[in-house]
């Protein structure tokens, strides 16, 4: 999988606010390069995480899982035909999410679907203080 510079930047911003453990089969950033975790040895990754040498790289499914755990759902995702920009609509669906964002849904835009999803995660993390 290729990650854009903006996707990597957003993953770093998410990592500052939320700890996501790197597991077998997930992506992380080591020395500026995306690496697929191919080791089942959790001790190896825990030592790298403890030293802040790796940054987890989120995928779309990671974003969806996080949003669902926080009480949000993406009700619409589409690519605008003129700008090729992705637009997603995020809605709170249970009481904790309503407390975080009020009763409002919100839209997020990005050059890729992953960028839009990462911006939605950052929006939820920013409001969840």
Describe the structure.
There is one protein chain. With 129 residues, the chain is of the alpha+beta class. It has two domains: 5-58, no CATH class; 62-127, Double Stranded RNA Binding Domain. The protein contains five helices and six strands. It has helices at 5-17, 42-50, 60-69, 95-101, 113-127; strands at residues 27-30, 33-36, 54-57, 72-79, 86-92, 106-110. The strands form two sheets. Strands 2-1-3 form a three-stranded antiparallel sheet, with helices on both faces. A three-stranded antiparallel sheet has the order 4-5-6. α1 runs parallel beside α5 (113-127) and α3 packs parallel to α5. The termini are far apart. The model has no long low-confidence stretch (mean pLDDT 84).
């Amino acid at each position: 999988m290729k990650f854009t510079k903006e996707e990597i930047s957003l993953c770093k911003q998410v990592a500052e606010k939320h700890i996501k453990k790197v597991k077998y089969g997930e992506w992380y950033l080591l020395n500026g390069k995306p690496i697929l975790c191919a080791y089942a040895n959790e001790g190896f990754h825990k030592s790298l995480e403890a030293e802040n040498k790796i940054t987890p790289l989120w995928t779309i499914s990671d974003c969806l899982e996080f949003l669902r755990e926080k009480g949000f759902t993406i009700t619409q995702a589409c690519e605008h035909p003129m700008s090729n920009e992705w637009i997603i609509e995020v809605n709170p669906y249970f009481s904790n999410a309503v407390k975080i964002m009020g009763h409002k849904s919100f839209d997020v835009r990005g050059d890729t679907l992953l960028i839009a999803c990462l911006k939605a995660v950052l929006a939820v993390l920013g409001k969840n203080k």
